[in-house]
Amino acid sequence: MTTFQDLGLAEPILRALAREGYEHPTPVQELAIPPLLKGSDVLGVAQTGTGKTAAFALPVLQTMMANRSSRRRVIRALVLSPTRELAAQIGERFAAYADELDVRHTVIFGGVNQNPQVRTLQRGLDILVATPGRLLDLVGQGYIDLSSVEFFVLDEADRMLDMGFIHDIRKVLKILPRARQNLLFSATMPTSIAELAGSFLRDAVRVEVTPETVTVERIAQTVMFVKKADKRRLLGQLIKTHNVGCGIVFTRTKHGANRLVKQLAQVGIEAAAIHGNKSQNARNRAMNGFRSGEIPILVATDIASRGIDVDGVTHVFNFDLPNEPESYVHRIGRTARAGKSGVAIAFCDESEGAYLRDIERLTGVTLTVDEEHAYHEPAAVPPPAQPRRARRSSPPKQSAPNERNARPRRRRRRRRGGGSGNAH
Question: How far, CA to CA in Å, does 15 sit from each of 11, 172, 292?
Answer without folding.
Answer: 6, 35, 27
